[in-house]
Amino acid sequence: MPLLARTKPPSTPSSSRALARIRPGAPSTFAYMAATTTGGRRFGIRRAKDRRQLSEHLRSQRLVPLKTWSLPSWVGGESDLSLKDQAEIHFQLAQLLTRGVPLVEALEVTATSVSATAKPRVERLRELVAAGSAFSDACQAVESFDQVTVAVYRAAERTGDLGGAAKQLSITARRQLAISGKVVTLLIYPAIVMSISVAVSVLMIAFIVPKIASALASNNAQLPWITTILWNTGDFMRENAGWLLLVLLALAAGAVIVRKALWVVIQQILRRMPLMKTLVLAQESTRFFTVMAAMSRSGVTLADALGVAIAALQHPELRAQIARLRTRLVEGGILKNLIQDVDAFPVATRRLMIAAERSGDLQNAFDTLAQDMAEEVDRRSMRLLAALEPMLIVIMFLMIGSLLLSVMIPLMKMTANAIT
After folding, report:
1. What is the side-by-side strand order in the sheet with 41-48?
2. Which CATH superfamily is domain 83-175 in?
């Protein structure tokens, strides 16, 4: 049981400092003006920990910083590495390092395989490693990888299996890409349907309903109250189209500025919806077991691995239970008893973890559970899509059908009066 035998060291000062090293502060955003080697000027936006680090980044690209300006945190600077680029970096490193290619050469090859936006980051990694930095320190310095990646590579440097760590991280990244793809697919379908419904409704309210209502009113037809309201609304929308457009643009800009807070609110709503809460919990469980599989296979102690995995979780209930488990484990608790208290996991999942702890095979258990949870996310996504289809049809009918009825009812009444 090598993983459990090392659960006590996290309480020591040296281990606490090691864990703190993998949690860098959030970088700031700066606008800069720099001089090029040809005497020209270059302007840009880049994220860095401080102005000193910004100057180091610019000088590494043969730019001389002239002026820098600090920008608000919501201003987008240099984009982070996409998950796709991270998966490609880990995959290329795993393929090359396991075949004996030196790390500097492997990074040089990797730089040719990633996207144009990620290439400068990989080249920066190669420069730092060539200058004598440890690879994990270089990953932390470029501030493009999360703490899980840095921790796994740091542990792999101690065991001498950097290629194996890269392979595990590649599997982890590709698994997360698959989950993200399912979530995007799940959101695209209702977004398209609702966008079409809203667009058709706006066109009907602004143009069709007022014209028909005006024609009916000119024939002395008695209009229902709903038709009158929609008629006045359509006239107001046409007369104030410019102002309404400005309001929509202001709302869109506000949503971009407060997107993080908005996303937190959306997540809270999703965690309470009957059809979504189980899917969200399964997705968070997949992330947890994926991180634990990557960390444990790299030789990271169980308590340290739990500490990093907690930071990767966003589900408040699951995060609180895992944090309580880690605290009690460091205090000397028995893992099999502590696992029983994590009721956010299904009973079968807890039983499997207890059996794996008894046999000393938690590493394979984490990987198996990550795969099982990923399949569970797939199944629940398909079920949710199947349930969304009739719900969206009903919503479309309520939106568009009510508009049609507001026009058809007075027409039918006028026709009935003409017949009589």
Report:
1. 41-48, 28-35, 64-71
2. Type II secretion system (T2SS), domain F (1.20.81.30)
